[in-house]
Amino acid sequence: MSEAIIKDIQQKMDQAIQSFQKSLATVRAGRANPAILNSVMVDYYGAATPLNQLATITAPEARMILVTPFDKSSIGDIEKGIQKADLGLAPSSDGNIVRIVIPPLTEERRKELVKVVGKFAEESKVQIRNIRRDANDQLKKNEKDSEITEDELRQYQNDVQAETDKFIKQIDSLVEDKEAEIMEV
C-alpha cells in the first residue's frame, strides 16, 4: 500500500519536472528557439488558436524564427498574436511568411529573464513540496488506520523526503543550466 504512495509521488513529481521544463523552453535565451512561440495564441476566425496549429515554426538561423502559415490569409492575425504575446519580438511579413528577428539581449533583460526562471523554479518547488505533504498526510492516515506501524511510517516519510530532495536538486540543476544559457553573451 505505502509503496504505491511512493511510486505515485515519483510519477507526480516527474510530471512537475516536465511541466517546469516546458516553462523553461518558453524563456528566451540568446539564440532563436521556436519554443518561445508555444504560448502565442492567435485570433483565427474568432477563436483563440495556438500559433503552432496555424503555421510551421522554424529557426533557420541563430537570430531568426520563420513562421510559415498554412493559410496565407492568416498572416495579419499571426503578426497581431505575436505582438500581443508581449515577448519583446517584432514580427515582419512579406505576404507569405512571418520573420521574427531575435534581438541580442541586453544585460538588464538577461537579469529579468533569470528572475523569470527563478519564479518558474519556485512554483515547481512548491508543487513538489505539496506532493510531499499530501503523501505524508496519506502515510499518517495509514498509520492511524493501523495499516502500517509507526516505524514503517518513519521509514516511508524518509523515503518521501529523499524523493523530494532528489527532484528539488533536479530543478536546481535545470535552473543553473538555463541561467548559464541566458547569461551567455
TrEMBL record:
<comment type="function">
    <text>Responsible for the release of ribosomes from messenger RNA at the termination of protein biosynthesis. May increase the efficiency of translation by recycling ribosomes from one round of translation to another.</text>
</comment>
<dbReference type="InterPro" id="IPR023584">
    <property type="entry name" value="Ribosome_recyc_fac_dom"/>
</dbReference>
<keyword id="KW-0175">Coiled coil</keyword>
<feature type="domain" description="Ribosome recycling factor">
    <location>
        <begin position="20"/>
        <end position="183"/>
    </location>
</feature>
<feature type="coiled-coil region">
    <location>
        <begin position="132"/>
        <end position="166"/>
    </location>
</feature>
<dbReference type="InterPro" id="IPR036191">
    <property type="entry name" value="RRF_sf"/>
</dbReference>
<protein>
    <recommendedName>
        <fullName>Ribosome-recycling factor</fullName>
    </recommendedName>
</protein>
<comment type="similarity">
    <text>Belongs to the RRF family.</text>
</comment>
<dbReference type="Pfam" id="PF01765">
    <property type="entry name" value="RRF"/>
</dbReference>
<keyword id="KW-0963">Cytoplasm</keyword>
<keyword id="KW-0648">Protein biosynthesis</keyword>
<dbReference type="InterPro" id="IPR002661">
    <property type="entry name" value="Ribosome_recyc_fac"/>
</dbReference>
